[in-house]
Design brief:
The complex is a heterodimer of chains A (496) and B (414). With 496 residues, chain A is an alpha+beta fold. Chain A has helices at residues 19-28, 67-86, 105-118, 128-134, 154-167, 211-217, 289-302, 354-372, 397-406, 422-429, 438-445, 457-469, 492-495; strands at residues 9-15, 35-38, 55-56, 90-91, 95-99, 124-127, 142-146, 150-152, 171-173, 178-184, 187-192, 197-205, 226-235, 246-249, 261-264, 270-273, 277-278, 311-321, 334-337, 344-348, 413-415, 420-421, 488-489. Chain A has 13 helices and 23 strands. In chain A, the strands form 5 sheets. In chain A, strands 1, 2, 9, 10, 11, 12, 19 and 20 form an 8-stranded mixed sheet that branches. In chain A, strands 13, 15, 16, 17 and 18 form a 5-stranded antiparallel sheet that branches. In chain A, helix 1 packs parallel to helix 5 and helix 10 crosses helix 12 (457-469). The radius of gyration of chain A is 23 Å and the shape is globular. Chain B contains 7 helices and 28 strands. With 414 residues, chain B is of the alpha/beta class. In chain B, strands 1, 2, 5, 6, 7, 8 and 20 form a 7-stranded mixed sheet that branches. In chain B, 19% of the residues lie in helices and 35% in strands. Chain B has helices at 15-26, 64-75, 140-149, 165-176, 195-202, 262-266, 304-322; strands spanning 3-11, 32-35, 51-53, 62-63, 81-83, 86-91, 96-101, 104-115, 119-121, 137-139, 152-153, 157-161, 180-185, 209-210, 213-219, 226-231, 244-247, 250-253, 257-259, 291-293, 334-338, 342-346, 349-350, 356-362, 366-375, 378-388, 394-398, 408-413. In chain B, strand 7 and strand 8 (104-115) form a beta hairpin. The N and C termini of chain B lie far apart (58 Å). Classes of the chains: A alpha+beta (496), B alpha/beta (414). At the A-B interface, helix 7, strand 18, helix 9, helix 12 and strand 23 of A face strand 7, strand 8, helix 3 and strand 11 of B.
Chain lengths: 496, 414
């Protein structure tokens, strides 16, 4: 793990380095505050924040007057500037919510009215001919077109926020799993399973799936999180460009998700999903044959010409829902400053559209913090990431020639599917957070994320890791401290 | 930017690329360039340290690296230029390539291009393996690279899904290195690997092969802990009563190989839905003029000896095309398609003016059958085969004289 001397005293401690926790840390890092972020995993953004559709929602789906509607619409308008600053890829590609049958049209109208009330701009209900101008070949009776819907790489955004917060003085503490909190008039004492104890004046709960567990550590009993799983397929880049916009069905009234849809990713893949199924555990990221079969079927209906070989990977994510399975539907976000626990800023049930809302939630939390602490802007705050360049494969040939001439590591291609260079891999390995799992490298450099899923590049990556991490290959981990990739050297096995 | 002009460019220095380049040289070509993404020549042969290569081509049993070395040695006496550590990133139908290497990024235009990129392995994602996604799941070829090339041990208690040849070879290899290979699972009612490998890699080491069996669920959060398995019926649906759990820390996948045709697609090369490789004529020229394909990028082979033979033809054809000879067969061409019991056959277009070797694979195992090359009821060639197996590619010679006035011929099992 990273070697940071950890001061034990903080002004603000944030529990959870998902996209919301990281956005809060980055927002607060603009001020003269001592900020710590406690993340139980070995990297930021490994749960809800990386396992979703990556959509910047417009705000048509949420009841007017709710916090969800407010922070989503506000977050949507903040996202472009934030991504520009942090050099994170995004695109406002718009979305069609498609009514297949006539009886669904009134529901489109409801979504339209709701969106207008929420302040969503340029909404329009369009007919089939207009739909087909946007997405050739699409079928349906009518659709609600929301041009302000977009896509962003969710884990890239989370990583960028966390890294930028850290560059501006916040401490991102990985592998810090909170197991106990004491509160008195001086503030909070937070204990982690790795035996560290930290204190702070204010405490922010952005623990996502585990936010109810954190509440209970402070005797706040009224919240319960019900994990609701969504399974996805990732499609081969061969299909890049076939989807011009996002395509969603009209959601049912009591559904817990927005229905299975097709989503472009900013990197050129298409996602199919997510399904909607409550599970018992907050770490149950299994995929199931039943759902995958359903997704394959729906995928082939939505994208004719899809072949089995186009499904390159499946994954699942969990929604931290506040509504139990028997009830379904949605409950409003909890974004509150607790009166019973002074100094405790509590975020519960930040499911979809948590990604879109993160910048706006960060502003709300900043304002809560300003009520208790004096916020003084730091002159030296730098909101951009200076060393970041785009993926090599997206550059012009002239730029490629120049980069390879300048640094030969740009000429060495490690990943054949995505054309990821050794330089990009080295940048990921030497990441400022000190994250060192293979998944951390995947999320930073896109290595192993192509159609061969690492068959080619993992052996090559291992060569690079030997130089960077040392020759003891039994230390290399996939996605967790117990997730060892190798047992050791070949003849070690026999000797042992 | 500058564009380098070359006569013949070969993409890949595995067995196909090496044989094609040497054949091109022997056919009189002087300007041949091989682009290889690895540091070493020889491709996947380098990690195949077992023997059995070369029985047909050299009449002796060689290891993979030895087989490759025979061709690498031949290169020494030629003027063939080799650029290793160089990856081709794009190819156009006008045969313009972009190549990246640590010594520079460049553009090359070729008169003829030979595709010899080989194939890649089908992944866990591609077969939609249900359950969790922990560490410890490797494709057999990647595992072979770790164990044989990098001296890295990937696990101790191993299950292998799929009975492809690399999986079988790895079952023996891991056993020899002290791991316990619990079992090999195959969803089909027969092995997808060569019968000789079943004997030498499984039976000789008492490793059970379970046919009609597959993985229903992967268990383990960070590292693989076990698998739920079951027998399947004819439609590949799992039979509930046969469900069982097996503990293991590693799952190797040997579930098929996919010709690596991303560059070919960029160059508008038409691909065959069954082989995953290009449609080719008897000169091994693809649908894009001046682009030839051979070896595993054309169709997956089981014997490297056949790769070498096939690739020599591609090399010779590339020389002819670079010299300005018309190799397209449009007029009076004979179409070749699979008939009864045949999964695929190639070349897809034949002129009828030359003798031709037809490669094919059968759909299912059989004994004592004939391979028929025929036009309707008229037999063009007939060959008796004692043992037919989908894992074993068959090659049949057909004389030009027998193809006179044919239009559409089929290959069938009778």
């Amino acid at each position: 793990m990273q070697k940071i001397t950890t001061p034990a005293k903080y002004d603000v401690l944030i529990i959870g380095a998902g996209v919301v926790g990281s956005a809060i840390a980055r927002e607060l890092s603009k001020f003269n505050l001592r900020i710590g972020v406690l993340e139980k995993n070995i990297d930021v953004g490994l749960e809800c924040s990386s396992r979703n559709s990556g959509v910047i929602h417009s705000g048509i789906h949420y009841k007017p007057g709710t916090l969800r509607a407010r922070v989503d619409v506000e977050g949507n308008s903040l996202m472009a500037h934030l991504c520009d600053e942090l050099k994170v890829k995004y695109k406002y590609c718009g979305k069609l919510t498609v009514a297949q049958k006539k009886h669904e049209i009134p529901e489109l109208q409801e979504l339209y009215d709701q969106g207008c009330k929420n302040g969503v701009k340029n909404l329009k209900i369009i007919n089939l001919a207009e739909m087909q101008k946007i997405q050739p070949g699409i079928q349906g009776t009518a659709a609600l077109h929301s041009p302000t819907t977009g896509i962003v790489n969710p884990y890239a955004l989370t990583i960028a926020l966390a890294e930028n917060a850290q560059a501006n003085g916040a401490n991102i503490l990985l592998d810090h799993n909170v197991c106990g909190i004491k509160h008195d008039k001086n503030g909070f004492k937070v204990k982690c399973t790795n035996d560290t104890e930290l204190s702070s004046k204010l405490l922010v709960n952005s623990a996502g799936l585990f936010s109810d567990k954190i509440c209970r550590m402070l005797d706040i009993e009224e919240y319960k999180i019900y994990p609701c799983r969504g399974e996805y397929y990732v499609l081969d880049k061969r299909l890049e460009g076939s989807l011009k916009t996002l395509i969603y069905p009209v959601p049912g009234h009591d559904a817990s998700g927005l229905g299975i849809h097709l989503t472009n990713t900013v990197d050129g893949n298409i996602l199919i999903g997510p399904s909607n199924e409550y599970v018992n555990k907050c770490n149950n990221y299994d995929t199931t044959e039943k759902i995958m079969e359903q997704l394959r079927k729906e995928g082939r209906e939505l994208l004719p010409g899809l072949s089995m070989a186009d499904f390159i990977r499946s994954f699942s994510g969990l929604r931290p829902k506040q509504t139990p399975p028997e009830k379904g539907g949605f409950k409003d976000f909890v974004i509150e400053k607790r009166q019973d626990v002074p100094g405790f800023i509590n975020l519960v049930g930040i499911e979809s559209p948590g990604l879109t809302s993160a910048p706006a939630i960060a502003h709300m939390v900043r304002d809560f913090v300003a009520e208790d602490l004096h916020l003084e802007r730091k002159n030296e705050f730098n909101g951009t990431r200076p060393d970041f360049s785009s993926h090599f494969n997206e550059l012009s040939i002239d730029k490629k020639i120049a980069l390879v001439a300048e640094n030969p590591d740009y000429g060495e291609i490690v990943c054949r599917c995505e054309h990821i260079t050794k330089k990009e891999v080295l940048d990921a390995i030497r990441n400022p957070l000190g994250a060192r799992s293979i998944v951390s490298l995947k999320y930073r450099a896109r290595i192993m994320m192509g159609r061969c899923q690492g068959g080619f590049c993992l052996p090559r990556l291992t060569h690079i890791l030997e130089t960077e991490y040392g020759k003891d290959v039994s230390n290399y981990i996939y996605n967790g401290l117990e997730g060892y990739l190798f047992t050791g050297r070949v003849r070690d096995t026999i000797n042992n | 930017m500058k564009t380098e002009k070359r006569s013949i460019v070969v993409i890949g220095a595995g067995p196909a690329g090496l044989a094609a380049a040497i054949a091109a040289y022997n056919a009189g070509a002087e300007d041949i360039l091989i682009l290889e993404r690895d540091t070493r020549l020889g491709g996947i042969l380098n990690q195949c340290i077992h023997d059995g290569f070369g029985l047909h081509y050299f009449n002796e049993a060689l290891s993979g690296p030895e087989y490759a070395q025979r061709f690498i040695d031949k290169l020494r006496d030629t003027s063939i230029e080799i650029r290793s550590d160089s990856m081709v990133l794009s190819l156009t139908s006008e045969r313009v390539l972009e190549v990246s290497s640590s010594s520079g990024y460049s553009r090359i235009e070729a008169k003829s291009v030979i595709l010899a990129m080989g194939c890649r392995e089908r992944t866990a994602g591609a077969i939609s393996l249900p359950g969790s996604r922990p560490a410890g799941i490797y494709t057999a070829g990647a595992a072979q690279n770790f164990v044989n090339m990098q001296n890295i041990m990937i696990g101790k208690r191993i299950v292998i899904l799929g009975s492809g040849d690399i999986g079988l070879i790895m079952a023996r290899r891991m056993t020899l290195e002290g791991a316990k290979v619990e079992e090999v699972l195959e969803i089909m009612p027969y092995s997808s690997g060569l019968p000789r490998n079943i004997q030498q890699c499984l039976n000789d080491y008492d490793i059970p092969l379970h046919l009609n069996t597959t993985v229903l669920q992967v268990h383990g959060r960070e590292r693989l802990e076990g698998l739920t398995l079951a027998k399947v019926d004819e439609k590949h649906h799992p039979i509930e009563s046969t469900k069982r759990y097996i503990q293991c820390d590693t799952l190797l996948l040997s579930v098929g190989l996919i010709p690596e045709n991303e560059l070919s697609r960029q160059a508008n090369v038409n691909l065959h839905p069954i082989t995953g490789g290009a449609y080719v004529n008897e000169n091994l020229m693809t649908s894009t003029e001046g682009i030839f394909a051979c070896g595993n990028v054309l169709h997956v082979h089981d014997l490297v000896d056949h790769v070498s033979e096939e690739s020599e033809l591609a090399g010779q054809s590339a020389v002819k095309y670079a010299a300005g000879k018309e190799l397209k067969i449009d007029k009076e061409m004979i179409k070749l398609t699979p008939g009864n019991g045949v999964r695929y056959c190639l070349p897809h277009q034949i002129s009828g003016k030359n003798d031709v070797i037809i490669s094919l694979r059968v759909k299912e195992p059989n004994r004592n059958r004939h391979i028929l090359i025929h036009e309707n009821n008229h037999n063009i060639a007939k060959e008796k085969i004692v043992r037919l197996h989908p894992a074993e590619m068959l090659r049949i010679n057909v004389k030009a004289s027998n193809l006179k006035s044919c239009r559409e011929i089929k290959v069938s099992i009778a």
